[in-house]
Structure formats: structure tokens, C-alpha cells
Specification:
heterodimer, A: 199 residues, mainly alpha, B: 239 residues, alpha+beta, nine-stranded antiparallel beta sheet
Amino acid sequence: MSDTELTTVRVPLKENVFVFQEQTTAPTVSPDKLTQSLGTTGLAQVHGANALVVRIDTARLYDAPVGDSSNIVRALELLKEASDHFEDARKATTVIAADRSLQRAQKILPNLFALRSIGDGFGVIVNSLYVAFTNLRGKPMNSKQVDVVWRVLRNLRNAPALSFDQGIQAVEELEESGLEVDPPELELLLGDSESRDDD
Amino acid sequence: MPTSMLNIDDFAPFSVTCELRFKNAYLIFDRTGKILEDLREHFTELEISSASPQQTGFTAQEGTFGLEIGACRFTSSKLDGTGEAFAKQGKLFFDTVVEQLNVTVFTRIGLRYIARKEFKSEEEAKVSLASLALANLGPTKRFNISENPIEAVFRWEDKDLGVLFRLKAETTTVKLSVPPELRASVPPLDKKIIGITLDVDYYTVAPVDREQWEPDAWVRQKLRMIKKEADGILAGGGK
């Protein structure tokens, strides 16, 4: 694999010659004494947006030594835990077993809520899930809702840095499944405003 | 287990660079100016150092930036203990570039940390490097040159991630030429820095989707990892 480059000097590309930069470019700290060679390069190393190469697993991307307490690592762990509970709920054979798994997942949400600063998309999804659970007021989710939340959680774990717009798309999916993602206070405020408009 | 005389705290940070590579982004021909205008709101005294349609270099008080058709990078030599400022500034830069160039997949993300420990003489630096016993080579003169290598390079890589780890005993010369008419007020500089350079390049091998990568968190986490692992190699005498 090519390395992070040392210099910004570019070798002109020649016909039929593939040059793979060997390092992440950084200010030169000493004259680059490496002999230029094409021997270590190969087309098998080519990656690109259109290359048929499997993307890195998100957990691997944020692979951390034991004891690393960064928010992103914690969030990925919690998302995995929550989506596992939802998966258990999907596979459960009784309503009680499914509900028990969902209650376990619900307990994780406050911790995810505390980490919502990870990104705009992350924040809006976690916020909506938190409110959706609250608005259920103890009622169990139906199987379609369980499927949708499970999928949203799983996607969020794969793409924790998604944009606000992508987050909104996921929230719309939750809404389409019948979950209420707006806080009850908002309805009261909107109700007041609408009644004032009527007056 | 032999222990060396070195640890990561002996090495003063020289520079840290974060670089993204991606498939050629042809929007660079339309949006370099827009990127610079956006960045000017976040960085102090942003100025272009070189410009061509495919490659623009610019500097600010916070660091040096490179924008190319297939890559962009941010380098800073002002590294605080946790790298928090670097990570936040990098996020501003990368988010702007990625948004404007409509990059959806990164073919490589690299984080390169360079630090130095100074010694009084080159011989002292070589002995210190040899004391690490990084490679299991006996004290025999090799290639009729020397017993001890002056550079040790290791690479760990799998299908997802890789690291290039380099230690080199070297003398760096810093020269600043001053035109004769200015020499009265600005003395020319000719300084030799003798020491060991630690150079760690952590990078991704597998492609990364834009939605997977949160620059701020990734940079801080990987900087911690680089320092911890480097310290382990230095302190453990290569064991």
C-alpha cells in the first residue's frame, strides 16, 4: 500500500506507467533518498470509487487500543448493543420476549443521547429515537417498527458521520413506520400557535 | 527484557499531517475558489502559496494545506498534547473540501506524525538507535559500511489498515539565505540538527465511505494510538 507522502514533488506520469505515491505527504524532514522503483507496485493495489473493493468495516476504522474511551468508540459499541437487542426482538417467538429486548435497547438510548454531538445526522436520529420511545408511553412497537428501527440503528453504526440530510431521511423512515418522533411539547406549542391563528 | 533509554516524551513533535485521497474530483476546476473563500472564514491569514488548476497550496497561521485533484491534506507543526486543535481544524478543512468536491469515497486516509529527539552528536544518535535493538541483527559490519544501521523501517498492514514506522538517526541542515542588502538586519541561518527522527504513518488500505469517517474523532483517536504504540516500541527496546 502506498504511504503518506513526504514531498509535494510529482513524478510526471509516463504512458503505461502506474505511479503509486508511497507516503502521506508531509513536509520534508530530510532529503528523500529512496530510489524510485516500480517493482513494488501492482495493479492489484488499485482502489477507487468504482473499484469492486469491500469498504472498511466502521468498527475497524475506529479500532482502538483497550481502554480508549473516545466518544466514537463508545457510540459504536452502544449502537451495536442496541441493534443486537432489536435483532433479538425481531427473532423473538413471543411478544413478551420481544418486549423485554426492546426495553433493554431503550435503556441504551440515554447514553447514545449523551453522545449526540458526534455529528448532525447522528444527533437527529438518536434524538428522534429517544422521543419515539417516550411517545410510545410503554406500548410495544409493532414488527414493522422494530424492523425499521433495527435497520436505522445498523445503518447508523456503519455510517456514524452521516450528514444532517441523511439523518432526516432516516427519521422520515421512522415516521413512515408510525413512530412519533416529535416531542410532545412541540405538539402543544404548535397547537397553541394554531389556535391563536384561528382567533 | 532490555529497555532502551528512549520514550515518546523525549521526542518533540515536528509535524502532523492528515491526508485524504480520492478518485479524481473534477469539480476542483470549478470550486477551488469557493473552497478557499469558505476556509478563509475559519482560518487566520489564509494565503495561497502555489496555484495551478489541478493543485493548490495555501498556508494559514494554523498550518499548511494542499488541495489536489485526487487528494487533500492539512499539516500543522503546532501540535498540542491531545491534538484537539489539529483535529478540529482538520475537520473544518476536510468537511469543506469533501462537500465542495462532492467526494463520496476515500481511497486512502493517512495520518503522519513526525517527531524528533536531538542529540549532541550523530554518533550518540546512532548508538541510541542501536540500543533499541529493533531488528535481531548481531554486531557485525554489514556491506562493509557499519555495524549499526542508521535507519529502521517497519510496516504492518492487513486488508483494512496499515502503519509505516520509521526511526532514523540523521543530521538535518536548516539554511536560510538572506540577500546581501538585508544581512545587516536579518542574519542568515545555517543550523544543523542532529538527532533521531520518529516518523509514523497510519493509513487505511480499504476504501472508506464519506459517512463512515468523522475526522475530529478519528484524528484524535489515531494520534493517541500512534503515541502509545510508538512509546511501547521505544520503551520496550523493540521487544
